[in-house]
Amino acid sequence: MRFWIILAFAALAATLTANARPQRIVTTNVCADQLALALAERQHIISVSRLATQPEISNFAEAAQGIPVNNARAEEIVMLKPDLILGDIYTGNHANNWAKAIGVPVHVINAGASIDDVRAIIREAAKALAEEARGTTLIDEMDARITKVRQLHTAPITALVYEPNGLTSGSGTLADDILSKAGLINMAPQLTASAYATVPLEQIVSTAPQLLILDDSYSSSSSRAQSILRHPAFLSLKGRTAIYRIPSRLWLCPGPWIAEAVEHLAAQRARFTPG
Asked: How many whole angstroms separate alpha carbon 29 and alpha carbon 90?
């Protein structure tokens, strides 16, 4: 099987054309799916990840409907004969390594720890897809929406992100930067020096931020990780803390959709403005 994959990838590399714009794009994770669908022509995307059609975590779930899915395995991807693979730093490394070894282009989507990183990620993906103009447009539109939010004259409020398993986002994270752009003061750095850390529920209740942002990707799930987000202890925050459930799709992956996350959070901030 391994020898067959090597031969198949080698044959694929030998048949790649000199087209500047990829014609057969394969994406192997939900972040890559969304960037490809945002930047490239849909007909050129021949396969997406198995998570691409899940609306809880993808902003392009509807657009991805009907595109064949893959599980980021080398043996299935080689059969697709891609001329570009869009992946990430976690998913499909085996397939990525095979492809790189014989010359099939692979572009890896990084995670991103700031809005500046998001701009770079969009720009680099657009370059890999030969859609630089579209990338510039998406960045400009994103920046315009964020700038509009920052021009709102409402007082900043304290906020804290709380995810399944009690995870929160501190300094040096994309969520922290998004909160800042929305006019929120992230309280996580007061609770932990780490970028990401588990914070006990009791500490959340005693801290009582003005806005508690619950990130619950699958609100209908009853997993133990997510059950903490529905804990009765939250009732003690009534009258002290507003609770908002943000759609995970808005900041799970780096992309222009983070502007909508900023807008949603700024709207929550506006609830605290007198009169």
From this structure: 9
Instruction: Provide the pLDDT for residue 220.
Output: 52
Task: Kindly report, residue by residue over 178-191, the tens digit of the pLDDT.
Answer: 999 999 999 999 99
Among the residue ranges 100-114, 145-159, 227-241, 244-258, the one predicted with the least confidence is 227-241
**Identity at 256, one-letter amino acid code:** P
Minimal CA–CA distance to 207: which of 231, 228, 188, 185? 188
3-state secondary structure of 154: coil
Sign of the C-alpha dihedral, residues 249, 254, 257, 260?
A: positive
* Strand ranges for the chain from DSSP E: 25-27, 45-49, 69-70, 84-88, 106-109, 157-162, 167-169, 184-186, 196-198, 211-215, 242-246
Rounded CA separation 12/9 (Å) = 5
Give the rounded distance of the alpha carbon of 80 from its chain centre: 25
CATH numbers and ranges of domains, the chain: 2-109 (3.40.50.1980), 145-270 (3.40.50.1980)
Nearest by Cα to 45 from 61, 29, 22: 22
User: Cα 86 vs. chain centroid, distance in angstroms?
Assistant: 14
Which single residue is written with the structure tokens 């030969």?
A: 130
